[in-house]
Amino acid sequence: MRVAVRRLLAVRRAAPRTLRCSARALSDKVSFTFVEEGEEVPVAVEHGKTLLEAAHANEVDLEGACDGSLACSTCHLILEQELYDQLPPPEEEELDMLDLAFGLTDTSRLGCQLKVGPEFEGAKFTLPGPDT
Hints:
By secondary structure, the protein is of the alpha+beta class. It is built from 5 helices and 5 strands; from the N terminus they run H-H-E-E-H-E-H-H-E-E. A hairpin with a 2-residue loop joins strand 1 (29-36) and strand 2.
């Protein structure tokens, strides 16, 4: 019996491995919009990227001076209330940084702390400015 199991394991190790995921999973992107100085910038971003990474990849002027290390508030974004309510609440460290943010609102979050997921589909993220 042990010999049979060893042979089976040897065959499995020698067999080429295939990646088991659907083509859809490989190409899944989430579409949402950044609003910068009143101008809408539609983007399509892979799951798992931060909003800061998404902004930089799409030439949206979201600074992120600390490169996402949670040491500043320059990637501050304003979320729609409905989306804000769906997300887990910000951690204490994020709240501390948000206290320093320009144009803080009740639905403010830091872009470096939010990872793109399906709940972002169709959402709008506003960069704070003089008109917000």
